[in-house]
Amino acid sequence: MSTDRLHRERVIAAARSLYDRGLTHGRTGNISVRYGEQILVTPTGACLGTVRPGDLSVVDADGNHLAGPPPSKEAFFHAIVLRERPSDNAVVHTHSAHSAAVSCLDGLDPDDAIPPLTAYFAMRVGRLPLLPYHPPGDPGIAEPIARAAVGHPALLLANHGPVAAGTNLDTAMDTLEELEHTAEIFLLLRGLSPRPLTDRQRDAVGSPPTRRNTP
Ligand SMILES: [Zn+2]
After folding, report:
1. Ligand 1 center to residue 183 CA distance, Å?
2. In the list 70, 72, 116, 215, which could disulfide-bond 86, CB 3.0-4.6 Å?
3. Is there a domain that residue 29 lies in?
């Protein structure tokens, strides 16, 4: 199987997995994988439950459309995350219910939106930035995403949903799923008295890279 075909198959497998488990719905969510000088990304208006390998779009490092159908209107921020995180090669974005619900809450710490409730959240997600609301596809989100992506593998877009990056698609999916799972726990605990990990406990389990990666 060619490298291109292999990457396309992996994107489709991830898309099916997200859709089949209810982590994305309708025609929401998008996935990208970088290899070589190009980025494969799910096309605009695609349902992740039915999109096929031949349907994927190809964009360059700046998000410019190169081949295939028009890319998702959110493809530009995938390109930005990949630019700012040169060691990462995959980005997953969804409107998953629990993360999206948390993204609508008032009063969160914009630098640390969900407390470190579990060690796995601390290790995989770390401090989660909550970025200001922008309408879908609004290029105004570009600068906030660029700034936040440098030091964080996962971001939460206000009144929208999560974005997760990883060295490969499996890692990006793991991070997104950890975020979604912890968002659910966070909501279950609303009105109760959770005891997050202390700073010492959080530091002891390690955290994702907080400095810009090197290629
Ligand atoms: Zn979106």
Report:
1. 17
2. 215
3. yes
* Neighbouring-strand partners of residue 63: none
Q: What is the Cα Rg of the chain in Å?
A: 16
The CATH number given to whatever domain includes residue 38 is 3.40.225.10
> What is the domain range of residue 142?
3-204
Cβ–Cβ < 8 Å for 182, 118: yes
Cα 32 to chain centroid, rounded: 10
- Catalytic site residue 35? no
* Spatial contact of 14 and 31, defined as CB atoms under 8 Å apart: yes
Separation of 208 CA from ligand 1 center, angstroms? Answer: 23
Q: Which of 74, 177, 178, 180 is catalytic?
A: 74
pLDDT above 70 (res 215): no
pLDDT confidence of residue 211: 42
Tell the residue number behind the tokens 């630098």, with chain if given.
Answer: 111
Distance from Cα 164 to the centre of ligand 1, integer Å: 12
Look-up of token digits 């494969």: 40
User: What is the model's pTM?
Assistant: 0.95
| C-alpha 202 – ligand 1 centre gap (Å) | 30
Q: Is 195 a member of any domain?
A: yes
The string of pLDDT tens digits covering residues 86-119 is 999 999 999 999 999 999 999 999 999 999 999 9
Would residue 74 show up in a list of annotated catalytic residues for this protein? yes
